């Protein structure tokens, strides 16, 4: 699964059949190399007072579908102060376009996305844009050394690994 698939996705409470809002930001732990949660922007109209942002921990998710994320009830969402992230978590949009550098000092490109397992939420790959005409590369999360404020550092060997087969098989027939 790719983080860009989730931003803007609706979150529904199964017990009430109610939309709780949309995924605004994807949060991950660089230490655990795992997506930990989502900031959910509540549904509000233009004339309504904006509600506080809410955190949806991945452990509270019932299912991530093609069109929506479901949870048992609204009570699984935790209200947090706007602009604040839980300690140790980084929002994907904070590292999107961040430069990727090898330990040897070579610029690889910039982060364009993150791929993760849709059930365990473990991050599998960083998708790195190598430039306008060069396309994107997938770098295994095992090759990530540091996620810092200025650069993401990867092992030199990250450039030597073959690209994984990411063919998607749709068996809904």
Structure description:
There is one protein chain. With 173 residues, the chain is mostly beta strands. The chain has 2 domains: 3-90, SH3 type barrels (Roll); 96-159, PRC-barrel domain (SH3 type barrels). 5% of the residues lie in helices and 42% in strands. The chain has helices at residues 3-6, 92-95, and strands at residues 10-13, 18-29, 34-41, 54-57, 61-64, 68-71, 78-79, 90-91, 99-102, 107-116, 123-129, 136-140, 144-147, 152-154. Strands 1, 2, 3, 4, 5, 6, 7 and 8 form an 8-stranded mixed beta sheet that branches. A hairpin with a 6-residue loop joins strand 10 and strand 11 (123-129). The protein starts with a helix and ends in a 19-residue tail after the last strand.
Give descriptors for this structure:
6-stranded mixed sheet, elongated, 2 domains, SH3 type barrels, mainly beta, about 170 residues, disordered C terminus
H/E topology pattern: HEEEEEEEEHEEEEEE
**Which spans have pLDDT < 50 for at least 5 consecutive residues?**
166-173
Radius of gyration: 17 Å
Q: Give the number of DSSP strands.
A: 14
Q: What is the overall number of helices?
A: 2
Short description:
The protein is built from two helices and 14 strands.
Helix-strand layout with pairing:
Blueprint: H1 3-6, E1 10-13, E2 18-29, E3 34-41, E4 54-57, E5 61-64, E6 68-71, E7 78-79, E8 90-91, H2 92-95, E9 99-102, E10 107-116, E11 123-129, E12 136-140, E13 144-147, E14 152-154
Parallel strand pairs: 1-6, 9-14
Antiparallel strand pairs: 1-2, 2-3, 2-8, 3-4, 4-7, 5-6, 9-10, 10-11, 11-12, 13-14
